[in-house]
């Protein structure tokens, strides 16, 4: 039974609101979940039911919900200076402080930040920036960007083009020219008879094959998420990133790490690049930069790239690039992450604890693999364990679970293809981790 309040919300939502990534007719028939409050790891709906937010919203609320310190920092900044821009030779203290702070957290060669309003805008910026970079260096033919199948880099024209998701390309005339999608390091689904190590090498060598086919003179950059998030939490085999590094070493191809999910601690290191030993020339950031309290993203670039970009005007920018209030939220978020040692907590305390319990779910008859790094994990649901088959029917209890799950047994998880994924807040307590694990197991049991 739902309350009159919820019924009213749902009717008004259905009447006027088109949701992103939603089949609206089905959603309206069922009625959306109306979330009205968040505190710590929990969210509450309009009927007072609470759920553990196992996805940190959309992999972003890393410091947990309802932090009054962020509200206070934002309020202070709004009262001081609610808006100014960073175009036309202007700047402001929160932008200066945030760029400086990010430069101290990233690898030493990464020195400058171009601010955006989101991860998609960051990746749009990447496309223009890497092509502009090579044009500035007198190599305008270097236009192609190599990405990977099943990657997710956002929803704007360029972001969705960089992404390798077929359903997104099927709408809106995508991809834009000059984007090439090659192998993803998805051993569980595509590794066949190869060991993970062999497959990691093979997937990286497909990138090398692309470089040879297209020609280095035509290639601007290679872009990849350190761990593919929306593609199903695809954690590459250990051999993958070192082999990519070998392939790109000495080649005139920029390495772009999309750190929108991995960045700011999700893997237990400040960046996924640090975790996997990637040395990017550019990094896209968003989400964890402000823990989702306000929209802000950016592209972090090396001093070598910054120098080339600094010679002439880069005709690019957004009204909300380095929005002062969003910068203030991000600065406060980074202060909390540091002062509460939350990244270390992911690496040393709650991460290993949750990983142990999560991996134990692999004994469940429906689970083919239970993988997790830091606080980002997936369960691969399989109809037939020994075959590692990922081809599930769309129907039936398991098919429905794998496709439609968003909340069950008081736990928010997300269904991607045939996997269930989690990325809980870094502030998750041990008791909450136990709750998460029990709820995940119960959801699997309910489906048998
Ligand atoms: N890049 C990655 C790796 C993402 O996961 C996302 C969003 O989930 C984006 C880019 C797009 O970010 P936004 O939704 O802020 O535009």
TrEMBL record:
Highest taxon of the lineage: Bacteria
Enzyme class: transferase
Enzyme Commission code: 2.6.1.-
InterPro entries: Aminotrans_3, PyrdxlP-dep_Trfase, PyrdxlP-dep_Trfase_major, PyrdxlP-dep_Trfase_small
Keywords, in A-Z order: Aminotransferase, Pyridoxal phosphate, Transferase
One Pfam family hit: Aminotran_3
GO molecular function: pyridoxal phosphate binding; transaminase activity
Keyword Glycosyltransferase included in the entry's annotation: no
Gene3D superfamilies linked: Aspartate Aminotransferase, domain 1 (3.90.1150.10), Type I PLP-dependent aspartate aminotransferase-like (Major domain) (3.40.640.10)
Family the UniProt entry places it in: Belongs to the class-III pyridoxal-phosphate-dependent aminotransferase family.
Name of this protein: Putrescine aminotransferase
Organism: Prosthecomicrobium pneumaticum
